[in-house]
């Protein structure tokens, strides 16, 4: 109902004259507080594998203003295959805190911010599973998946892997497969997505929520 109101031309005309009507749309995209995050893990299955690193930028619109970065010691050993992929080995994490200590700090960092990641199905599933395993509450933040947005905003790409999307915008994909490296790339991609979304008339948090609800789940 409200989404239809925003599309109504009479409402849009009144909105230009009476600025308070814009509050119904929620925060504009350039004012939304977001946490762009990425994780590294010991494997692909959240019910079996563990998180070895969490990295995150706290941003407002396209502006960075805080950082979270933590290596995590898993209960199981990190395999040579995972070390080759991520660069994270058992020596690096031997003195690092366990996930049950890191998760509360990460939850405090994200607070009520919108969570953004490339392929949130993967990252969020691990965060939720680790929360369950350690008897902590799961995050209920709004979630934005840049993978799903890329499929919607950039039709026709050969694939929608993070480095492919980054390459489309001329972003250099350095430090891949380390959490902060991937966060930095996603942060730059998100800045371009804000422009593309606004060009399509999606310029508020509520409009973004409406779009996300319409996107395919996978």
Describe this structure in words.
The chain has about 220 residues and is of the alpha/beta class. The protein has a single domain, classed as Ribonuclease H-like superfamily/Ribonuclease H (Nucleotidyltransferase, domain 5, 2-Layer Sandwich). It has 10 helices and 5 strands; from the N terminus they run H-H-E-E-E-H-H-H-E-H-E-H-H-H-H. It has a 5-stranded mixed β-sheet with strand order 3-2-1-4-5, sandwiched between helices. Helix 6 links the parallel strand 4 (about 115) and strand 5 (about 145). The longest helix is centred in the last third of the chain and has 21 residues, at about 180-200. The two termini are about 25 Å apart. About 30% of the residues are buried.
CATH A-level architecture:
2-Layer Sandwich
Give the distance, in angstroms, between the N- and C-terminal Cα atoms. 26 Å
Q: How many DSSP helices?
A: 10
CATH topology: Nucleotidyltransferase, domain 5
How are the strands ordered across the major sheet? 3-2-1-4-5
* Overall pLDDT score: 89
Helix percent band: 40-55%
Which structural category fits the helices and strands?
A: alpha/beta
Shape: globular
Q: What is the CATH homologous superfamily assignment?
A: Ribonuclease H-like superfamily/Ribonuclease H
Note the run of SSEs as H and E.
HHEEEHHHEHEHHHH
């Amino acid at each position: 109902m409200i989404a239809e109101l925003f599309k109504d031309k009479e409402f849009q005309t009144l909105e230009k004259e009476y600025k308070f009507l814009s509050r119904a749309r929620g925060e504009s995209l350039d004012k939304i507080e977001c946490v762009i995050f990425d994780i590294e893990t010991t494997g692909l299955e959240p019910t079996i594998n563990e998180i070895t690193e969490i990295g995150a930028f706290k941003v407002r619109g396209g502006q960075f203003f805080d950082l979270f970065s933590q290596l995590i010691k898993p209960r199981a050993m990190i395999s040579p295959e995972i070390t080759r992929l991520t660069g994270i080995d058992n020596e690096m994490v031997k003195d690092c805190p366990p996930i049950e200590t890191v998760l509360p700090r990460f939850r405090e960092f994200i607070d009520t911010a919108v969570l953004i990641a490339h392929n949130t199905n993967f990252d969020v599933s691990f965060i939720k599973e680790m929360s369950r395993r350690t008897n902590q509450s799961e995050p209920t933040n709004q979630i934005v998946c840049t993978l799903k947005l890329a499929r919607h905003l950039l039709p026709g790409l050969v694939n929608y892997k993070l480095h492919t999307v980054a390459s489309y915008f001329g972003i250099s994909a350095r430090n891949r497969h380390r959490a902060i490296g991937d966060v930095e790339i996603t942060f730059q991609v998100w800045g371009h997505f804000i422009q593309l979304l606004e060009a399509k008339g999606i310029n508020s948090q509520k409009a973004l929520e409406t779009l996300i609800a319409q996107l395919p789940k996978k």
